[in-house]
Design a protein that fits this description.
The chain is an alpha/beta fold. The protein is built from 10 helices and 5 strands. It has a 5-stranded mixed sheet with strand order 1-2-3-4-5, sandwiched between helices. 30% of the residues are buried.
């Protein structure tokens, strides 16, 4: 028993140690495991990054791999970054460009200290506009080299970075405008269709109560018409409220709709209680119309209906459905860390 326990502990320790060694131990600023660069390209890019570290202490590392296996590129990049301590301790001024050849994915992982400069939006724009267009033509070195040049330029030239961020903000405002227009049209369309269905159904509902109270519509056939009119009226109400709720949730942090739907699922009787004022208002309106008319007495008929009244009243308002490093060139991590900031992309 003791031997089995020792074996189990040994295996667990081995697996833990193996898990800790799953990422490359970086020795250069450029590690081309996927072999997408020529030797000259590796040398030039590595020397550029050596010079960048010597001038600024920032560490920018490029790693290419064949595939990710069972990890996401975000998890792999963060693990590789932190295990190698890219960036200087206390400054966390590291950057990692991770390229996965067969997964067709790339990520820029940003250390804590550089997140105010290379923000997620900046990293995403570099990937989308600089890297991916080159990667689609299998110009991998050109895409990565251009992205590296951009990041070096932004960290060395605050004005260039500010202009780049300004362009991003302008683009986001433009996209937001189109989004608002689309949401507005979407909401108006649904509200219009829903409003038509609601008022048509509710008008029929009022006439059903009015016909029942005057004996011109039998209680039993009136009940069937009541259910039908209520269904289409409530369906219209859903069409009105749903898009308004979606728009509200998009522009606020609260999620009242999801909360209330969950309440209705947990306690469906809440919905039934809501029918009381729904029908109650219709009854009140029907009685007011009878009172103002002053020519009809209140009476009930259980089954028999006035066919002429039904045909005249509900043919026009009836319920109808609708559809709708150094100079040596080697890399040595300075103990920097990343909390997962950056951006990813695929092509």
């Amino acid at each position: 028993m003791r031997k089995k326990a020792f074996t189990l502990v040994f295996l667990l320790g081995y697996l833990f140690a193996a898990a800790q060694q799953q990422y490359y131990e970086l020795r250069d600023f450029v590690t081309d495991s996927a072999q997408i660069f020529t030797a000259a390209q590796v040398f030039d890019l590595n020397q550029k990054l050596v010079d960048f570290e010597r001038e600024t202490t920032n560490q920018l590392v490029v790693v290419t791999i064949d595939k990710l296996d069972f990890e996401t590129i975000e998890t792999y990049a963060n693990g590789l970054f932190n295990q190698n301590g890219i960036g200087q301790s206390g400054k966390d001024n590291g950057l990692l460009v991770l390229f996965s050849k067969f997964d067709r994915e790339v990520r820029i992982e940003v250390g804590y200290g550089l997140e105010p400069y290379i923000t997620d939006a900046v990293a995403s724009r570099i990937i989308r506009n600089t890297m991916i267009p080159n990667f689609k033509d299998e110009r991998y070195y050109e895409g990565i080299d251009a992205a590296v040049n951009q990041m070096i330029n932004f960290l060395n030239d605050p004005e260039a970075l500010a202009e780049f961020k300004s362009d991003i903000a302008a683009s986001e405002r433009k996209a937001k405008t189109f989004e608002n227009i689309f949401l507005g049209v979407f909401a108006l369309l649904f509200v219009g269709v829903g409003g038509f269905s609601f008022f048509r159904g509710y008008r029929t509902l009022i006439e059903v109560f009015r016909g029942v109270f005057t004996g011109k519509l039998g209680v039993l056939p009136g009940f069937v018409m009541l259910i039908s009119a209520s269904f289409f009226s409530l369906l219209g109400l859903v069409f009105i409220l749903a898009p308004l709720g979606v728009v509200y949730n998009i522009y606020t942090s609260e999620s009242y709709i999801g909360y209330n739907i969950a309440r209705l699922i947990d306690d469906p009787y809440l919905g039934l209680w809501g029918l009381l004022p729904f029908w109650g208002i219709a009854i009140c309106i029907a009685l007011i119309k009878l009172k103002l008319g002053g020519k009809e007495d209140l009476k009930l008929s259980w089954i028999k209906s006035d066919k002429a009244y039904v045909g005249r009243t509900f043919s026009s308002s009836g319920t109808h459905s609708f559809s709708s490093g150094g100079s040596s060139g080697s890399f040595s991590g300075g103990g920097g860390g990343s909390g997962g900031g950056g951006a990813s992309g695929s092509w």
